[in-house]
Amino acid sequence: MDENVIAFEKNQPIETDIVIVGAGPVGLFAVFEAGLLGLNCHLIDNLDKVGGQCAELYPEKPIYDIPALPYCTGQGLVDELMKQADPFKPAFHLNQQADSLSKLEDGRWRLETSTGTVFHAPVIVIAAGAGSFVPRRPPLENIEEYEGSSILYAVRKMEALRDKKIVIAGGGDSALDWTLNLHPLASQVTLVHRRDQFRAAPDSVDKMRQLVANDEVDLQIGQIKELKGEGGQLEAIQIKSSDGELYEVPCDVLLPFFGLKMELGPIAEWGLNLDRDLITVDTEKFETSVPGIFAIGDINYYPGKLKLILSGFHEAALMAQQAFRYCRPDEKLVFRYTTSSTDLQKKLGVI
Amino acid sequence: MSYIVVVDREGQEHRLDALNGWRVMEIIRDHELPIKGECGGCCSCATCHVYVDEAWRDRIPKREDEEDEMLDEAFSVEDNSRLSCQILFSEDLEGLRVYLAPEGA
Lengths: 351, 105
Ligand SMILES: Cc1cc2nc3c(=O)[nH]c(=O)nc-3n(C[C@H](O)[C@H](O)[C@H](O)COP(=O)(O)OP(=O)(O)OC[C@H]3O[C@@H](n4cnc5c(N)ncnc54)[C@H](O)[C@@H]3O)c2cc1C
Ligand code: FES
What we know:
The complex is a heterodimer.
Chain A (H helix, E strand, L loop, with lengths): L4 H4 L5 E2 L2 E4 L3 H12 L4 E4 L7 H5 L5 E2 L8 E2 H12 L5 E3 L4 E6 L5 E5 L4 E4 L1 E4 L5 E4 L7 H4 L18 E5 L3 H10 L5 E6 L8 H12 L4 E13 L2 E9 L4 E5 L2 E4 L3 E4 L10 E2 L2 E3 L12 E3 L4 E2 L7 H19 L14 H7 L3
Parallel strand pairs in A: 1-9, 2-3, 2-10, 3-6, 10-21, 12-13, 12-17, 13-14, 20-22
Antiparallel strand pairs in A: 4-5, 7-8, 8-9, 11-18, 14-15, 15-16, 19-20
Chain B lengths: L2 E5 L5 E5 L6 H7 L18 E4 L12 H6 L10 E3 L13 E4 L5
Parallel strand pairs in B: 1-5
Antiparallel strand pairs in B: 1-2, 3-4, 3-5
FE2/S2 (inorganic) cluster (FES) binds next to loops of chain B.
């Protein structure tokens, strides 16, 4: 790549010290550790919120093994980590996936996200947990033929669904919210769920029940067994009721909402050494097989690894030391405590 | 040694050593059969879905509301569906037979 590459970027690149892929607890604490050393961070996450597994999978559940925090909830921990990172003004780029990584001529990295945000940075830290959260896909035959055209896991343009026969599957908030949002513009909305109980917000459930009572929404208790259609266009879905009866419902578009799963995604193509779906690192710097790229938290593997938040915090601190050397090659790093260093306390904004 | 029998998605039977107090998900995972158990047994991911053999259906404790709710995120749920992290192994379950359920695509 030539020197002018920056000028030709479609979008103005963001220049920073460290790009952190994943805003889970470990990515958030890495902001703090890097911040103490004077390094700035930008974080990318494909969720619409920070906090990774803690915020997405168990916000209300208790955690008992964070040092000096005898008890906190998943979300509570995330809130405190955000507070701790705040003095270092991390920038968050949510709802986008870290997609492609390449090297710039000056030795820094160029990282581009799924929405076209471009970063230039000397250090990449992968704190991607068990990978990106992506929608869970029903194990139905030939489902890939319809995905993107007739089967959507997220609604980007509501207008595209006008006058369609829509089937929504699931019993949580996404399924109920979209049932309520789409019924005024669709020609027909059918909600399919395996049992006549819904874990979505009670208010949405009440509204849905009202629409069903008024014949404005069709509720089917059962599970989808088969997709019927041709050339990527759904025509109907087959449902199996709880007593085993099979029947068809006409359908132009199916929206399945079965929660999220985690998969490594594009990071698998970045040329790093992997052990199954984990990135192998050394235990001194938590650097991957490629210099300047680190992996911390649940995503990494080394002998003795424990997938605990605690371990990720430790890894973040050691990673930051080496990251400093890449980001500030001409400066010397001194080891200091937050308790006694006025320099660190200034950075923290406490004096 | 106590044991359980797990039938994988290809129909292959596995006799697995089982320890008292372990979750059935943990026993299956420990023997490296393909079960994800993403949430480590917290009833938060539905990636440990199994079918319990009819002969055992009434011999294990019924599912709780939380488990039933989580099964909403699983596929091909049947009356004998269970989240295997919610079944605690004990000697009463010697010889328990379960089938791994299909995973999401
Ligand atoms: C139910 C449950 C209970 C738990 N209880 C405990 C406990 O008590 N104690 C404990 O120590 N641990 C516990 N854990 C484990 C703990 O939550 C994890 O160790 C921790 O979340 C790992 O943090 P992380 O930051 O490495 O990754 P994660 O929390 O997984 O966050 C990674 C983030 O990266 C994002 N991401 C990944 N790839 C990309 C990409 N390419 N582009 C953009 N974003 C991407 C993901 O969307 C995700 O938000 C529990 C886990 C679960 C599920
Ligand atoms: S392991 Fe997650 S629900 Fe059982």
